[in-house]
Amino acid sequence: MEDFLPSNGVEKVCDMLGVQKIGVNETRINKDTSKDENKTPSQPCSQFVIRKGDEHDIGSPTKNKHKLLYEEERVNLYSYEEFEKEFLLEATEDELYDEDPRQECQSEVFQGGSYAVGKVLEKNILTIKFHLLQEDSKTIDLDVKSDVVYLYSHRYKCKLYLPVKISVKTCKAEWQSEYSILKVTVDEAPVSNALCF
Fold first, then answer.
1. pTM
2. Residue 124 contacts residue 188 (beta carbons within 8 Å)
């Protein structure tokens, strides 16, 4: 290595790589200090010793040097209302629906009824059709409330506000596989005559 570099080139490379340069006789002295303690290197340096690093090679950072924010600033940046909204309060059904990435399906609502003898209206019936193209009926989840219907499936979602209040207990669903339509029939909730003026 010394043949290709100028006289001070070896020292520069050693300094750059963090290598300690010692002579041949120094190596013998370091190995056996009891025999030759007073010998000095008489030959030019031809061997190199690479030492392992220790704790003194790394600077010790101060406690507050790497802190980006102090305690007071953390509290001020994140209010309790934001924490409560994010972690403590449960999301409403409408918020969950809005965040859902599924595609909205088409739906239709029909109002009708069943008639008794003499064309007297016996009860009002609401019929809802959800068009779910190429959907598996096993993945459909239907949540019926008195004034709104939520539908979730593998590909689709739907939120449908109903024109009238319904009786949830009378809800019936039928899957028409040849048309990929979910047909839901439900009775309208009875209106109390006492409240009508």
1. 0.53
2. yes
